[in-house]
Amino acid sequence: MRNCVVSEPEPEVLPAGSLILDPELEKLHEAEPELEELPASYSIPEAGALLGLNRAGSYELARSGKFPVPILALSPRRHRVPAAPLHKLLGIGER
Question: Would you call 12 exposed, middle or buried from its count of C-beta atoms within 10 A (0-12, 13-18, 19+)?
Fold first, then answer.
């Protein structure tokens, strides 16, 4: 049996500051929900999911202070992401 080396394809390099959007986010854009139907705030994992991040990545960015929108600390263990800055970043509700 021969040893065969299979090379992995090179990952796509995105410009700095660009976001990887989740296909679910595309559905949200297509549906054009009314702002009244959207939540006023999100949990860190929910906001991260809209940004295409997994749960661990969302919390890591939040801990490091690098989450792309402000996070409100309601108590030492309870944090929320206000919807308005997140929607603005994602272009939700813009007409």
Answer: exposed
pLDDT reading at 1 higher than 60: no
**Mind listing the pLDDT tens digit for each residue in 23-53?**
666 665 555 556 667 899 999 999 999 999 9
Q: Please state the domain count of the chain.
A: 1
Say how far apart CA 31 and CA 77 lie, in whole Å. 33
The parent domain of residue 60 ranges over 23-32+40-90
DSSP string, 26-74: HHHHHH---GGGS-SEE-HHHHHHHTT--HHHHHHHHHHT--SS--EEE
- Confidence (pTM): 0.62
- Statement: residue 77 has pLDDT above 80: yes
Residue 50 forms part of a structural domain: yes
Residue 66 inside a domain? The answer is yes
Task: Decide if 13 is inside a domain.
Answer: no
